[in-house]
Amino acid sequence: MQEYVANFGISEQVFTYVIMPLLIFLARIGDVSINTLRIVFVMSGKKYIAPLMGFFEALIWLLAIGQIFQNINNPLSYIAYSGGFAMGIWVGMTIEEKLALGRVLVRVITPEPMPELVEYMKEKNYRFTIVGAEGRYGRVQLLFTVLKREKLKDFIARVKTVNPKAFYTIESVKRISEDDFAITEDRPNFATRLFGKIRK
User: Fold this and answer.
1) Mean pLDDT across the chain, nearest whole number?
2) What is the pLDDT of residues 110-136, one digit of tens each?
3) pLDDT tens, 3-14?
4) Which residue of 45, 72, 77, 113 sits 20 to 30 Å from the alpha carbon of 103, by its own alpha carbon?
5) Which of 94, 99, 103 is nearest to 170 (CA)?
6) What secondary structure letter does DSSP report for 27?
7) Average of pLDDT values for 54-72?
8) Could you tell me which residues come within 8 angstroms of residue 177 by beta carbon, excluding any fewer than 6 positions away?
């Protein structure tokens, strides 16, 4: 590779201490970002996409670690490797947040009924269940709903508008029992959502 780069008039020192660490840094960002998304797909039960991403993750990692061993005396390679790992986590989390993949289970607990929130959920065709429960200070209303993560922000904003003191919890959902759960939802596929985010 050094001979190939030398054809462009790049010195060996520049290649060793600038270009190679930069390539290792970028490769590490790539494979860690893929790893972050792969974990999300595994948790979401995407058994066809996750193995494919695992293949590219391992391939990129091997390329990066191979260059580390070839430049084992270069301390910048280790810094680039570690820095790429840290940056890859941030990039992967950012991409995952933008894509808003999967569904979440939201529990909302309030001492009083929230008819405004119920009407909002009916308008949005959200499926939900409300049960009575006993809390520390008496009777409470417990609302369950499962919705797409991309709609979570708007839903929580509505909850806070209706009752700023409402207590809620959010959990990831791996799988739902009904295959037609999202018939009432506009469900673009993963590729459409990914490229739509990139264009924005």
Assistant:
1) 80
2) 888 888 999 999 998 888 889 988 888
3) 555 555 566 777
4) 113
5) 103
6) H
7) 84
8) none
The 8-class DSSP code of residue 52 comes to: H
> Where does the chain show beta strands of DSSP type E?
103-110, 128-135, 138-148, 167-173
Residue 53: what residue type? M
In terms of residues, how long is the chain? 200
CA 69 distance to own-chain centroid: 31
Cα 150 to Cα 100: distance, rounded to the nearest angstrom: 5
Is residue 19 within 8 Å of residue 5, measured between CB atoms? yes
Give the Cα separation of 49 and 46 in Å (integer).
6
The amino acid occupying position 106 is V
CB 95 within 8 A of CB 33: yes
Instruction: Inform me whether the pLDDT recorded for 80 exceeds 70.
Output: yes
pLDDT, residue 182, reads 46
The token pair at 41 is 């797909």
CA dist 162 and 121 (Å) reads 12
For residue 125, which amino acid is it? N
Q: How would you write 148-181 as a 3-class SS string? A: EHHHHHHHHHHHHHHCCCCEEEEEEECCCCCCCC
The Cβ-side half-sphere exposure at 85, using a 13 Å CA radius, reads 8
Nearest residue to 159 via CA among 199, 197, 191, 126: 126
Instruction: Let me know: does 106 contact 168? Beta carbons within 8 Å.
Output: yes
